[in-house]
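Workshop exercise sheet. Pairs work together: one partner reads the sequence aloud, the other fills in the structure field after running the prediction. Swap roles for the next sheet.
Pair: D.N. / O.F.
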Amino acid sequence: MKNKRVKLILGLIIIVVLGLGGYFGYQYYQNMPQNSTSKENSAQISSLREAISLNNIDAVEFLVKNGVNLETPFDTSEEKQDNGFTALGWAVFSNRPEIAMYLINSGADVKAEVPLGSSMLFWAITYNMEDVAEKIIENGGDIYPHNGYNPALHAAVQGRNKIVDMLAKKGILPDDHHENEENGEEEQKTLEK
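Structure field:
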């Protein structure tokens, strides 16, 4: 009889301990901060990249309306060649003007860097996405010459006169060889010496 009681008490203790462990484990999991690169977010970003690649505006709109983070850089390529592109950067680089305009109008950052040493404006000019280029300029995107690239000269060579005029109003001219305003001031001081 005594053995039965001991077994019964031990069984009850084990059940209580397991129950409490499960309860506290559940509470810990519920209160744990969510990682911004969770599997769900990673799947959304991968889906967004794929929707842009396939030029599927409906899928892009669905993902944006369901809260996908437009500023999370893509990291889905096995070759890692497209790492660092945000949704807008990928849309411009992939020549998807309708999607690019939608993303800009949805608040995507036009200042985000684009891998490969270029800018969103470069690709918008290259692909004759004049409306997108205008939005990038209007919303404060990277318009300054750097790395030997001058967007105003690029637009002039491509015959994008409206873009050339917009950049000229911002002080960027096709014959501007300054990397940016700071470098231009340094170059002027050097010439004065």
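Discussion prompt: Residues 27 and 33 are 12 Å apart (CA to CA). What would you look at next?
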